[in-house]
Amino acid sequence: MRPILESLSQSTAKVLIKVAFTFEPLAPTILTIFINQRLHRYKESGIVNNYKTHTKRLGRYHYQIELQLDLTNIQAAHLAVNLLPTQLSIFRRWHYD
User: Fold this and answer.
1) Around Cβ 12, how many Cβ atoms within 10 Å?
2) In 1-97, which ranges are continuous DSSP H helix?
3) What residues contact residue 54 under an 8 Å CB cut-off, 6+ apart?
4) What end-to-end distance do the CA atoms of the chain give, in Å?
5) Per-residue pLDDT of the chain (97 residues; tens, 9 = 90+)
6) What is the pTM of this model?
7) What span, in angstroms and rounded, lies between the C-alpha atoms of 84 and 46?
């Protein structure tokens, strides 16, 4: 029974990897939609006046994300103090390695 489950999980993993590689070129569109949803919430709450995003695929798993934010001085200070440290905290482990 165990070899059947192992072979089934291996074949399932192979299929999922192939599916992921098939849809990877759609990632810029998905990233843009995700970022726009987040920024729309910030716009509704008054944290951002206006925004524009553009995501470009540079190569496999390499993307360029361009954000244009329309902010007042108070909004920029709020963004720098409250939002950026929590958003960038996931990158700290790479910075100190």
Assistant:
1) 10
2) 2-23, 27-44, 73-78, 84-88, 92-95
3) 32, 65, 66
4) 43
5) 556 666 666 777 777 777 766 777 888 888 889 899 989 998 998 888 999 998 888 887 788 989 899 999 988 888 777 766 665 555 555 544 4
6) 0.60
7) 16
